[in-house]
Amino acid sequence: MDDLSKMRQEYDAGILDEQLMPGDPLETFTEWMYEAVAFGMKEPNAMTVATATAGGRPSARVVLLKEVSREGFVFFTNYLSRKGRELTSNPYAAVVFDWHDMARQVRVEGRVERLPPEASDAYFDERPGNAKIGAWASPQSQIIKDRAEIERIREETAQRFENTKVHRPPHWGGFLIRPSVMEFWQGRPDRLHDRVVYYKTEEGWSKHRLAP
Q1: DSSP letter at 79?
Q2: Quick one: which of 59, 8, 68, 26 has its CA closest to 190?
Q3: CA–CA–CA angle 197, 201, 203 (5° rounding)
Q4: Whole-structure pTM value
Q5: Structurally, what CATH architecture does the domain formed by 4-127+170-210 represent?
Q6: Measuring CA to CA, which residue among 99, 41, 65 is closest to residue 177?
Q7: Which of 67, 49, 64, 47 is nearest to 119 (CA)?
Q8: What confidence tens digit (pLDDT) does each residue in 53-105 have?
Q9: β-bridge mates for residue 155, sequence order
Q10: In 10 A of CB 96, how many CB atoms?
C-alpha cells in the first residue's frame, strides 16, 4: 500500500460565508441536501451516527436519513440493536454527513427520542415487502452461527406472513435527533477550511465561524 501519510488533496470547490447563511441551520442543511442530490452524490442521505453506552464507550455506523424537518433528523432501526440499546440508555447522538466529492461535511449533535408508534407504523407500511420481512427476521447486532441461520429465519418469517399483512415489529421503529449543535464545513485550499457552527439557544440559534 502507498504511504498513507503522503496522500493529500487540495479542496477548492467553494466558499462558506456565515454572513450570507440563514439563521436556522436546518434551512442551510436542506439547501445543501438539495445541492448534493443535484450534484449526483450517491446516497447523500447516508450519515454516520455515533452513540455511546451509559458508561461513555462510543460506537458508530452508517444509516440512512429518512426525514428532515424543523424538528430534526429521523432514521429507523431495530430498538434492540447496539445503537438502539445505547440510545435508550444514553439518549444523545452525533451525526456526520460526508459529501466528500463536494468538499463538504455537516456535523450534528443532539438529544434523541423515539418517534410516536403511529409515525413508525406509517413509515413501515411504505417499506418494500422484503424489507418488512427482514425487520422481523433479523436479531440485529446479535451473534449468529452463520449466514444459513439468518436465511432460515427469513424463510420461516416469510412463510409466517404469507397470507397476512406484515405489521411493524414492536422492537423496530424511528428515532428523532433534535439538534443542539450543527456545523457546516467547506473545504478550502491550504487546509484553511471554512467552518460555521450553530448553537441552539432559548431564543433560537446563534451562529459563529470556527478556526479551521
Answers
A1: T
A2: 8
A3: 125
A4: 0.90
A5: Roll (2.30)
A6: 65
A7: 67
A8: 999 999 999 999 999 999 999 999 999 999 999 999 999 999 999 999 999 99
A9: none
A10: 16
Asked if pLDDT for residue 206 goes beyond 80, the answer is: yes
Can you read off the three cell numbers belonging to residue 113? 427520542
Count the alpha carbons within 13 Å of 119 in the hemisphere toward its beta carbon: 13
Supply angle C-alpha 81, 134, 47, rounded to 5.
Answer: 55
Cell 433479523 belongs to which residue? 138
Query: Which cell numbers hold the place of 5?
Result: 501519510
Q: How far apart are CA 29 and CA 200, in angstroms?
A: 15
Distance between CA atoms of residues 166 and 45, nearest Å: 26
CA distances from 30 to 19, 147, 149, 159 (A): 18, 39, 41, 42
Measured distance CA(172)–CA(78) in Å, rounded: 4
Q: Which three cell numbers stand for residue 170?
A: 414492536
Q: How many angstroms from the chain centroid is the CA of residue 145?
A: 29
Query: What grid cell was written down for 159?
Result: 412463510
- The CA radius of gyration of the chain, in Å to the nearest whole number, is 20
The amino acid that residue 197 corresponds to is V
